[in-house]
């Protein structure tokens, strides 16, 4: 509340603060008159009062919001929870009692539904293990076991029926898992003079095309491999 000596010195800041109370009958009459006199003499405060009245009328024109149906029930629930929270924190005894209730509720809601399935699964696992245990017995050492090589390189088991006019042709041949020739190359250090002769090169390729190979194996499964062969007139030398 303003002092009587401050009423005569109403400025713009004071008017903006008391502007909405000019129509309030509970406001001091002297202050109301001073505010109205300042509004008439100040153009800026007069525009501010007009904007305030327009804003108030616009707010009054807005439709009233409907109160939610469950508002009273929700408020009662919130009040009940708040009362229970405050009651559980009165002293250490009530706090311990509240914690004990929470732990008991967690055990009832969580562990009890899991206890029966867990016990059933454990009993089933023990029964199956006991039933299958005899099949895990270790037998005596085998005497007729044939050792299997981890890796076996590719082999040539069929020569080409077509001969060739070549001798001492060394190649690195790539064999796939089906025993087919994928590619060949001249080893490093070999001159490969026959590559310059189209007829000899065709004869070498025809020999590779009609040769039969056994693919490499790794733990009994087919695997690709590269072997080095030397083509001669009478026979073939194979190196893994």
How does this structure look, described?
This protein has 240 residues and is an alpha+beta fold. The protein has three domains: 4-60, no CATH class; 92-120; 152-239. The protein is 48% helix and 16% strand. It has helices at 4-7, 12-18, 29-41, 43-61, 71-87, 92-132, 198-210; strands spanning 151-152, 155-158, 169-175, 181-185, 212-214, 216-218, 221-223, 225-231, 236-239. The strands form three sheets. Strands 4-3-8-9 form a four-stranded antiparallel beta sheet, with helices on one face. Helix 3 packs across helix 4. The longest helix has 41 residues, at 92-132. The radius of gyration is 51 Å and the shape is elongated. The mean pLDDT is 78.
Itemize the secondary structure elements and their pairings.
Elements: H1 4-7, H2 12-18, H3 29-41, H4 43-61, H5 71-87, H6 92-132, E1 151-152, E2 155-158, E3 169-175, E4 181-185, H7 198-210, E5 212-214, E6 216-218, E7 221-223, E8 225-231, E9 236-239
Antiparallel strand pairs: 1-6, 2-5, 3-4, 3-8, 6-7, 8-9
Helix pairs in contact: 3-4
């Amino acid at each position: 509340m303003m002092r009587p000596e401050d009423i005569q010195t109403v400025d713009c800041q004071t008017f903006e603060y008391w502007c909405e109370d000019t129509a309030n009958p509970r406001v001091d009459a002297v202050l109301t008159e001073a505010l109205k006199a300042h509004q008439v003499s100040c153009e800026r405060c007069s525009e501010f009062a007009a904007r305030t009245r327009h804003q108030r009328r616009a707010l009054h024109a807005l439709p009233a919001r409907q109160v939610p149906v469950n508002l009273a029930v929700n408020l009662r629930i919130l009040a009940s929870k708040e009362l229970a929270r405050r009651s559980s924190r009165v002293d250490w005894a009530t706090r311990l009692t509240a914690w004990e209730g929470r732990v008991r509720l967690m055990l009832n809601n969580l562990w009890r539904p899991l206890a029966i399935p867990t016990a059933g699964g454990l009993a089933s696992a023990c029964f199956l293990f006991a039933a299958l245990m005899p099949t895990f017995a270790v037998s005596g050492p085998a005497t007729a076991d044939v050792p299997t090589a981890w890796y076996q390189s590719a082999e040539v088991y069929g020569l080409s029926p077509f001969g060739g006019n070549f001798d001492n042709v060394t190649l690195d041949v790539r064999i796939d898992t089906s025993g087919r020739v994928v590619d060949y190359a001249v080893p490093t250090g070999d001159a490969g003079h026959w590559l310059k002769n189209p007829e000899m090169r065709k004869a070498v390729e025809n020999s590779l095309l009609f040769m039969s190979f056994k693919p490499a194996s790794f733990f009994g499964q087919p695997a690709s491999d590269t072997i080095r062969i030397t083509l001669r007139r009478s026979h073939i030398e194979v190196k893994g």
